[in-house]
Amino acid sequence: MLNVCKFCYDRIRFGRISSDCVICCNAFERVRDFAKEIVKSLSEYEFERFQVGSRVRGSLKAIQEYLLEIGINDEKNLKSQFNKMLSNEISRLTGKRHLNEPEVVITFDLEDFSFDIKILPVYIYGRYLKRIRNISQTRWLCRYCNGKGCEICNYTGKKYYTSVEELIAKPVIEMFKARDAILHGAGREDVDARMLGNGRPFVLEIVEPKKRYIPIEEIEKAINEYCKGKVEVRELRYAKAKDVKIVKTERRKKIYRVKVIFEREVSEEEIKKAIEELSFREIHQRTPKRVLHRRADLLRIRRTYDIDLILHRGKIAVLKIVADGGLYIKELISGDDGRTKPNLSELIGCSARVEKLDVLDVI
Questions:
Q1: What is the extent of the structural domain holding 81?
Q2: Quick check: 357 and 330 in contact, CB under 8 A?
């Protein structure tokens, strides 16, 4: 005869009711104590919705498999019933709700009575403007020391002194008392390019926040005050995890302004003829040589749309280009030794390069 607790006895109908259950080790009798420990661990965190799950191993896993074999369905099995009892007790102690789309996930191990708590991120959608050149979109570690600090990076551990991500993240991390914050952008501009116009869409993922419910207007104000004009955010709103995928996979057109320097003086007629040929074209572009060290060598096919000449003076031209996101504009001008076709240099018959690049809009 096996000694089992009342709960396990009710499920399997054998053995002798006992205060020392050989199946669950009296886990069901101790739910209230477990709930108190969990609530204590969550005392620093703001949340309204939570979920409880559990892991079964050893004897409890064996008995659960036995119950399934004899036809006791999942809603009545030991694991499901324990989760329900623990959820109800946590709700009773905190007033929080056990719901889908939780902010906290609790996983209880029914073998050793340990538990894990996962604090789900807070997500904020918005658009950012980058008004100065030579800051990267995200943290860029020094490739010589991999972030440890060396003479080449002046012991900062970074290739660039700051980034859009760091400027936006720092005040947010402080406000939410979070461990970190990660910026997910709808594409990225070059380090030496500005992002102007209506800004680039992004989602900021706030990691392990202790606070969750801060008015969005306060967040926007704090970021913009901290950035002091280098970066500006707008149109902020709370978002969901799925918005990260949407932002990173949506294909958007972009409008660029480029200052082009030609190897020789070119006429306005030459430029206009070349950009007419380059407009509304399918562009075949291999990964640029300048980024081959960090990106796969692939063939990308993108389209150009309107290309207009804004200014021309001798060897200098300023162009406005509308193109698919993901088209490398510098290589559209230079040709990148034939890796981008067609390109402005070959159409004019003269080497050309981009001296300055601005993203005017993401549409």
A1: 30-119
A2: yes
Whole-angstrom distance, CA of residue 290 vs CA of residue 116: 44
**What DSSP character marks residue 228?**
T
Q: Which tokens sit at 325?
A: 């996101």
Whether residue 221 sits in one domain with residue 146? yes
Domain assignment of residue 2, yes or no? no
Reduce the DSSP state of residue 361 to 3 states and report it. Answer: strand
Tokens of 282: 């399918």
User: What pLDDT, on the 0 to 100 scale, is given for residue 294?
Assistant: 83
Which CATH number is 47's domain given?
A: 3.30.2130.30
pLDDT tens per residue, range 293-325: 888 999 999 999 999 999 999 999 999 999 999
User: Are residue 96 and residue 142 in the same domain, yes or no?
Assistant: no
Q: Which of 195, 215, 249 is the last residue of a domain?
A: 249
pLDDT tens-place string over residues 162-221: 999 999 999 999 999 999 999 999 999 999 999 999 999 999 999 999 999 999 999 999
Residues of the chain predicted below pLDDT 50: 1, 75
- DSSP per position, 54-90: EE--HHHHHHHHHHHHTT--GGGSHHHHHHHHHHHHH
The two beta strands, 104-109 and 49-55, are parallel
DSSP string, 116-136: EEEEPPEEEEEEEEE-SSS-B
Please give the structure tokens belonging to residue 5.
């607790």
In the chain, % helix, strand, coil (3-state, to 5) comes to: 30, 35, 35
In angstroms, how far is CA 68 from the centroid of its own chain?
40
pLDDT of residue 285: 98
- List the one residue out of 38, 128, 48 whose CA is nearest residue 85: 38
Cα separation, 361 vs 322, in Å, equals 9
CATH code for the domain in which residue 286 is found: 3.30.70.3190
Q: Cα–Cα distances in Å, from 159 out to 136, 143, 151, 209?
A: 9, 8, 12, 28
Active-site positions? 190
What are the structure tokens assigned to 150, written together?
Answer: 């060396």
Same domain, 171 and 61: no
pTM of the complete model beyond 0.85 = yes
Q: Could you give the CA distance from residue 39 to residue 213 in angstroms, rounded to a whole number?
A: 19
